[in-house]
Amino acid sequence: MSAIRFGLMFCALSCCSSVAGRAMAEPPKAPVRAEPPKAPVRAEPPKAPVRAEPKPDLGEPEAVDKDRARLLFEKGVTAYRDGRFYDAVDIFLETNRLYPDPKLSFNVGKAFEGMGNQAGALRYYREYLRRSPDASDAHEVESHVHQLEQALAQKGLQQLTVLSTPDGATVKLDGQAVGVTPWTGESFAGKHRIVLEAAGYRRSESVVEIDPHRARDFNIELSKEPEKPNAALLANQAPMQVEPKVSTFTLITLATGISLLGTALVAQVANNNNSTGISRTAAFFAGGGAGVTVVGGFMLYFDLSPSKGAPSGVTWNSGGLEHGMSR
User: Fold this and answer.
1) Residue pLDDT tens, the chain, 327 long
2) Do 141 and 117 belong to one domain?
3) 138 and 148, same structural domain?
4) Widest CA span of the chain, in angstroms?
5) Contact 106, 130 (CB under 8 A)
6) 149 domain residue, yes or no
7) Is cis: bond before 166, omega within 30 of 0?
8) What's the DSSP call for residue 224?
9) How many domains does the chain have?
10) What is the extent of the structural domain holding 250?
11) Of 9, 19, 91, 180, whose CA is between 20 and 30 Å from 3?
C-alpha cells in the first residue's frame, strides 16, 4: 500500500516539474491590441476653374488722388497725435502733392513747430497765408508768424522766399546755388544778390535787401530768350553772290590790243633797216594796240569785280499779288 502511494506521488511530482519547465522555457506572450478602425479617406471636391478677376474701376484720376489723399491725411493726423512729427511732415507734404490744399501747409507748419523747428514752421505758415490770404484764421496766423520772425531775428537771421514766373528756376544767392524756385531760406539782414537762371529764359540778376525783423517774398518774372534765327532760312534769304566771270567780248578786246601791239613791234623791226626812228606804220599799230588794250583792261577789271547787289536784270516777284486782269 505504501509502495502504491509512493508511485503516485512520484508521478505527480514529475508532471508538476515538466509543466514548470515549459512555463520557464516559453516567455509569456504580450496581449494583442486591436488597432482602431481607420477613418475613411474623403475625396476632395474638384476645384473650380480659376477665373481672372476683373480690374476694379478706379474712376477719374482726380477722384482716386482725392481718396488716397484722404487716407494719407488720416495717417498724418495719427502721426501728429502720436508725436511722430517728422513722419507727419512727410505724409502731409505727400498729401498736398496728390491733392493740393492750403490747409495742408498749415498742418506742415504745426508739425515743424512740434519738432522745435521754428524756421520750418515759419516757412509753411507763410506759405499758408500766401495760398489762402482770406482764411478765417489769417489774423491769428499772422500774429504767430510775427512771433517766429522775432525769434529768428534774435539769431541774427531772417527768412526770405524767392518766387519766379515760371517756377523751377535755379536760385543763386550771393554767387552760391541754393535751390530752385519757389525757394525759402534764411540769411543775415542786409543787401544780397539774387540770380535766377532757367532754360529758354534770360538770366535775371537783382539786388534785394532783407529786413532784419520781417520775412519777405521776392517775386521775379523771367523773360524769354529771343528765338535764334534759322541758319538755313538765313542762307536762303541772303542775296546770292555772283561769281566773277570774264566775258568773251573782254577777251576779244584784250586779244585785239595785244595783236595790234605785236603788229607794231613787227613793223618796227622790219623798218629798222631803212630808218632809225619809229615808222608811221609801227606808230599807228602801237597807238591802236595801246588804246584797245587799255579798254580791254578796264573791261577785265569790271568783269572781275565782286557783285555787291542782286544780279543784273529785271526780276518779278509775284508773292502776295493776284494774277489776272480786271474786267
Assistant:
1) 445 554 545 444 454 444 444 444 444 444 434 444 333 333 333 343 444 444 434 345 667 788 899 999 999 999 999 999 999 999 999 999 999 999 999 999 999 999 999 999 999 999 999 999 999 999 999 999 999 999 999 999 999 999 999 999 999 999 999 999 999 999 999 999 999 999 999 999 999 999 999 999 999 999 999 877 666 666 666 666 666 677 787 778 778 878 777 776 776 667 665 556 677 776 776 777 677 777 777 777 777 776 544 444 444 444 444 434 344
2) yes
3) yes
4) 219
5) no
6) yes
7) yes
8) B
9) 3
10) 242-304
11) 19
